Amino acid sequence: MKGGVYLDAEAPQLVQAHFAVVHLRRGSRKRFAETCVEIVADEATALAMADPGRQLHAAEVMGPSRSSEGFRLYYLVRWLD
Questions:
Q1: Rounded CA gap, 4 and 30, in Å?
Q2: Residue spans per domain, the chain
Q3: Is residue 6 within 8 Å of residue 34, measured between CB atoms?
């Protein structure tokens, strides 16, 4: 388990670490709907796209993971900015 996400050793391609820009008010949330997350190529790109004034925050996330309600979620590993 990493960051609240259970990893399947037999299918590691399903849930992976990604760099991303997350669109929301930064707070104590640890998981985000896929509609709030834009996956980017690397840490530098995420940091370049971050704009706290527009509620865009660079992060490292794990996902996507399917919730019990059927939504695809990403889980926060760490904020980059």
A1: 9
A2: 16-79
A3: no
Is 18 in a helix, a strand, or coil?
A: strand
How confident is the model over 4-33, as pLDDT tens digits? 555 555 555 668 999 999 999 877 789 999
Amino acid at 51: D
Q: What is the DSSP secondary structure assignment for residue 5, as one 8-state letter? A: B
Name the pTM for this structure.
Answer: 0.82
Which of helix, strand or coil describes residue 72? strand
Distance CA 68, CA 40 (A): 26
Q: What is the pLDDT of residues 56-81, one digit of tens each?
A: 999 999 999 888 898 899 999 999 97
What whole-number distance in Å separates Cα of residue 19 and Cα of residue 39? 6
21: β partners: 38, 58
